[in-house]
Amino acid sequence: ARAQIGVTGLAVMGSNIARNFAKHGYTVALHNRSVTKTDALLAAHGGDGDFVRTETVAEFVAALEKPRRVLIMVKAGDATDAVIEELAGAMEPGDIIIDGGNALYTDTIRREAALRERGLNFVGAGISGGEEGALNGPSIMPGGPAESYESLGPLLESIAAQVDGTPCCTHIGPDGSGHFVKMVHNGIEYADMQLIGEAYHLFRAALDLDPKQIADIFTQWNSGDLESYLVEITAEVLGQVDAKTGKPLVDVIVDAAEQKGTGRWTVKSALDLGIPVTGIAEAVFARALSGSRAQRAAAKGLAAGELAAKPTDIAQFTEDIRQALYASKVVAYAQGFDQIAAGSAEYGWDLKPGDLATIWRGGCIIRARFLNRIKEAYETDPALPSLILDPYFRSAIETAIDSWRRVVATATLLGIPVPAFASSLSYYDALRAQRLPAALTQAQRDFFGAHTYERVDAEGKYHTLWSEDRSEVRSS
Ligand code: NBP
User: Fold this and answer.
1) Among 173, 318, 385, 461, who pairs with 475 as Cys (CB 3.0-4.6 Å)?
2) ipTM of the complex as predicted
C-alpha cells in the first residue's frame, strides 16, 4: 500500500482531480467501474505523476495507505450509493470516504449517518470549478466529521485554488453541510448567470447593440467592481463567431437553457426553510420558460401594447445596466447567504458565512472580486442581519438605486423581460418598507380561517368574529 489518496470515477471531473493530486506530489490510486477510462487516463496523462492502476475495488482499497482516503467522483444519485456500498465493504473503521459529486445534501446526511454506524468517516465535499478547476485548483467545500478533516484537509487544501496565499477549501461543518453550501453556491451561480443574461438582452433589445459591442462592454466591466469569472467568459462567448455561418455564435444557439438540478434543489430547500431566494428562483424559472419551446412558439404574436421609445443616451443606459446588475447581484448573494444561515440553524451546522466567501474567491464558477467585500462584511459583523445592511453594500446600492429603477422601468415600458432585475428590486423595496400589505393578508386569513392576528399595540393573539357581530376577542 503506497497511495495517499484513491480516486474512483474517472470521467472528466475525477480524471482531472486525480491529475491535480498527482501534480502535487501525491501517489494516486486510480479506479473506474470500466477499466477503459483508467487506461485512457494513464495513456494520456500517466506522466503527470505517480499513479497506481487498479481494476477491482479490492485492489484499489489494498493500494491505499491507512487510514485510507477515497474520493468518489461518479454520477450523483444511485451510482454514488452503489459505489459507497462496494467500498464500505472493503474498507476498515477509521477510513475516509469522500463524495465529491454533486450530491443532494439530504442524501449526504443519510450516507454519513449510515457509514458512521459502521465506523467509517464520510465526507460530503462540494467541488466547484468545472473541469478546468478540477485540474488546476477547484473550490472545495468538505463537510463531515472534524476529525477526518485533520487527515484529509492538507491534501484537499493543497490541490484547491489559492487566493492571496489562502486555499479555497476549509472544513464547512458536519454531515451534509458541504453539499448544502455547494448547492446554494450553484443557486447563486444560476442567479448571476440570469442577471448577466438580462443585461445582455437589454443591450440588444433596448440599445440595439451587437454581440461584439456587448462583448467589449463586458470586457470593460471585468476591470471594475463586476470583475468575475462569469463576466469574463460572457465577453469571450459574445465575441465568438460561428465558423459555419460567420454569425455571432450566440445567435445560432437555440435559446433554451437546460439545468441539471442544483438550482432547483436550492429553491426547493429555500421554500422549505421559508427563505425568499427570489433571484435564484427567477433564474430557475427563466430557464424553464426558455425551454417551453412549444408554448413560446404558440405565444408568437401576443400583444405587447404601446411601447415606449428606446433610450437615446447609450452611455447613460449602459451605466444604468451596470449598476442594476451590481445591485441585483448583491441581492442574490444576500438571499443565498440568508439561506445558508437558515440551513445552518435548521441542521445545527454552525456555518461561517465569512469562510464561504473566502473559499469562493477562487476556483469556482462564482469567483469574483466582489467576494472579498463579502468576506470583509462578515469579518466586521459575523451576525449581519442581511448582506445588504453591510455599510459597503448599503452604500453601493444607494449609488445604484436610481439606475436600477430606471432599468426595470425602461425594460417594462419596452416589453423586455427582466425577471431577476425586477424581483431583486422588489425584494429590496419590500425589505426596506416598514409596513407591508401582509397585515391585509393576515386579516383575510383570520376572516376565512380564524387564523388570528397580532396587534401593533398589544401583546397576544386576536380574532375578529367576522360572521357574528365583528367584535374582537383575545385568542387563548
Ligand atoms: P459523470 O457525472 O458523467 O459520471 C460518470 C462516472 O460515473 C463514470 O466514471 C462512470 O463509470 C461512473 N458511474 C456511473 Br455513470 N454509474 C456508476 C455505477 N453504478 N457504479 C460505478 N460507477 C458509475 O462524471 P463527471 O461529469 O466527471 O462528474 C462527476 C461528479 O462530479 C458528478 O457527481 C457531477 O455532478 C460532479 N460535478 C461535475 C462538474 C462538471 O463540471 N462536470 C462540476 C462539479 C461537480 P463508467 O466509466 O464505468 O461509466
Assistant:
1) 461
2) 0.98
